[in-house]
Design a protein that fits this description.
four-stranded mixed beta sheet; alpha/beta; 28% strand; nine-stranded mixed beta sheet; 35% helix; 334 residues
Length: 334
C-alpha cells in the first residue's frame, strides 16, 4: 500500500486547486507566567512575543501550498490591518489572491490565542478570543455574483476544489449547487469540510466531517455517535449523496465509506497523546483533495490523509505537513 501512496505523493505536485471558504487570521500571543494577579484569581503573563498565521480556509490553502500545489483562494477579508497581514502571508507563500474580495463592510475574522507557559517551557493555549467579523447577509447577492464570475473565469484551469466552510458567510449554497452542476461531467473532485452546515452540501465528491459533525447531520448527540457510526454514515450518504464519506474520529482514527463498497476503518497513525488538534481537519481535507486530483481512490486518499493528520497534530497551532515529512513516514512504515 505504501508504495502506491508514494506514487500518489509524487503526482500531487503542481495540482491546481481552488480553496473557497471563510478566511481567518490566527493571532498567537505568547507569554511567560510570572505570578497570580492580586486583582483576580488569574495568571499574569509577561508577553514574550506574537505571530500571525493563516486560519480557517486560509490554513487549508497553506496546507496545499506546503504540499506543492498551485493554489487559488476565493473568500473575503476586511480592509483592515489583519486583512493586510493575511494577504501578506498569502503573497509570501505564492498563493493566488485574485479571487479574494477585500471589503470595508466585513472586518477580517480573527482568532486570538493566548499561549502561556514557564520560561523556556512549551506554551499552551489558555484562552481564545474570536472576532467574527461583520454580517455578510446584507451583501450576499453582490458577493455571490463576484464569486460566480471568478469561478467561471478559472473553472477550466482547475484540478480540484476544496470548500472550507466555517459558517461565516463566504460560502453560498446557491453557488455551490451551480458549481456541482457545472463540473458534473468533469473528473474534478469537490471536497467539502463544513463545521456547522454539512447538511446543506449535497452531491459532493467527498465530505470530511468529524464524528460530532457527522452525528449533527442526523440530529444525533455527540455522546451517542460512537456506537452508531455505521448507521450515521448510511444516513448521511442517503441524505447528501457524496461519492465518498470520510469521518475523522480523533484517537480512533477514521472511517471511510465509498459507494457500493465495504466500509474501511483506518487506525490513528502515531501517538494518541496529541499536542494540538487545531487545523487538523484542514490538513485532512487538503490531502484528500490533492490525492483524488492525482488519481487516488477514496481509500488511498484517506490513508494518506491519516498519515498527514498524525504528523500535524504533534505540532503547535494550525500547522502544515510537507511532502518530505510524508515521504519519510511512508518509507519508514513500508
Amino acid at each position: 500500500m505504501n508504495k502506491r501512496l508514494l506514487e500518489i505523493l509524487k503526482a500531487i505536485k503542481g495540482k491546481r486547486i481552488l480553496v473557497w471558504g471563510d478566511l481567518v487570521c490566527d493571532e498567537y500571543i505568547y507569554g511567560d507566567v510570572s505570578r497570580i494577579s492580586r486583582e483576580a484569581p488569574v495568571l499574569i503573563l509577561k508577553k514574550s512575543g506574537s505571530e500571525y498565521r493563516p486560519g480557517g480556509a486560509a490554513n487549508a490553502a497553506n496546507n496545499l501550498i506546503s504540499l506543492g500545489a498551485k493554489v487559488k483562494v476565493m473568500g473575503i477579508v476586511g480592509k483592515d490591518e489583519n486583512g493586510r497581514k493575511l494577504l501578506s502571508l498569502f503573497k509570501n507563500r505564492r498563493i493566488d489572491t485574485t479571487g479574494i474580495l477585500i471589503s470595508e463592510a466585513f472586518p477580517t475574522i480573527t482568532k486570538t490565542r493566548i499561549m502561556a507557559g514557564g520560561i523556556n517551557r512549551p506554551k499552551q493555549q489558555v484562552i481564545r478570543i474570536d472576532d467574527e467579523g461583520g454580517e455578510v447577509k446584507s451583501e450576499v447577492k453582490k458577493i455571490q455574483d463576484i464569486f460566480w464570475k471568478y469561478f467561471l473565469s478559472i473553472k477550466n484551469s482547475l484540478d480540484g476544489i476544496l470548500i472550507s466552510d466555517y459558517s461565516y458567510g463566504a460560502v453560498s449554497f446557491g453557488i455551490y449547487n451551480e458549481i456541482v452542476k457545472t463540473l458534473s461531467t468533469k473528473n474534478i473532485p469537490i471536497v467539502v469540510d463544513s463545521r456547522f452546515d454539512l447538511v446543506k452540501f449535497k452531491n459532493a465528491t467527498v465530505l470530511t466531517p468529524n464524528d460530532e459533525e457527522a452525528g449533527a447531520v442526523l440530529g444525533i448527540e455527540s455522546d451517542k455517535t460512537e456506537k452508531n457510526i455505521n448507521n450515521i454514515a448510511r444516513g448521511i450518504i442517503k441524505k447528501l449523496n457524496p461519492k465518498i464519506l470520510i469521518i475523522t474520529r480523533g484517537k480512533k482514527g477514521m472511517d471511510v465509506f465509498i459507494e457500493n463498497k465495504k466500509p474501511h476503518h483506518i487506525p490513528i497513525y502515531g501517538s494518541d497523546e496529541v499536542v494540538d488538534v487545531t487545523g487538523a481537519g484542514d490538513t485532512v481535507s487538503s490531502i484528500v483533495t490533492l490525492a483524488l486530483s492525482s488519481g487516488a481512490n477514496g481509500y488511498e486518499a484517506a490513508q494518506l490523509a491519516n498519515y498527514a493528520g498524525g504528523i500535524v497534530v504533534m505540532k503547535m497551532g494550525a500547522a502544515t505537513v510537507s511532502i518530505k515529512e510524508l515521504k519519510e513516514v511512508l518509507q519508514r512504515e513500508e
